[in-house]
Design goal:
This protein is mostly helical. Helices cover about 50% and strands about 0% of the residues. It has three helices and no strands. Helix 2 packs across helix 3. The chain is elongated. The relative contact order is 0.14. The mean pLDDT is about 90.
Length: about 70
């Protein structure tokens, strides 16, 4: 909207919170993830993908029986 604010009702917020998770890494953790993947697989991750790969593979984000999808 013109004020740059997006508001949602409590029910919608609860639904979103039940279906989505978020994670983050320190700069050092990002660099270590990039290094580990490169050494182990010969693939150079960008920083965004390094965060996603780490939080999904370490279990920092759990998705129950649903697949984890990194956006």
């Amino acid at each position: 909207n013109k004020d740059g604010i997006y508001r949602i009702d409590e029910e919608t917020l609860k639904t979103i919170q039940d279906q989505f998770s978020a994670g983050f890494l320190s700069e050092e953790e990002v660099l270590e993830t990039i290094k580990t993947v490169y050494v182990d697989h010969g693939y150079l991750l960008d920083t965004h993908t390094a965060v996603a790969a780490n939080v999904v593979t370490t279990g920092a984000i759990t998705s129950g029986s649903s697949p984890a999808i990194a956006l």
